[in-house]
């Protein structure tokens, strides 16, 4: 017997990954988010994987709990096109940001960086990282 399992919609997967990204950036567990919404952590897992679609009112509640606008969950969504000054559409490809912030190192770096209040120090750190990255390219 052939199982007819429908694949999750790419937008649902994207929205779920953005929920996970923001939740982990805040250091919030799936259990805590579920409690805040009155649902189980298993339901949060299904949302984050994109296997269950998040309804509009639930997404609004999630955005309030995670302190981001609803639009945050759709940034860089599949099929999202940016039109440049010449009228040419260019697909936005910043999955590397999600991948970076989903990694342990990326999350640690981001949390530490946002705690730095001095803009000059932040700029110097960015320059340092750029320099170190360029040195890695030279190898």
Automatic annotation (TrEMBL):
Name the Pfam families on file. Answer: HTH_3
Record-linked PROSITE patterns: HTH_CROC1
The name this protein goes by in its record: Transcriptional regulator with XRE-family HTH domain
Q: Which organism is it from?
A: Rhizobium halophytocola
Residues covered by the HTH cro/C1-type domain: 19-73
Instruction: Extract the coiled-coil ranges from the record.
Output: none
Parts of the chain that traverse the membrane: none
Q: Which InterPro entries match?
A: Cro/C1-type_HTH, Lambda_DNA-bd_dom_sf
Its domain of life? Bacteria
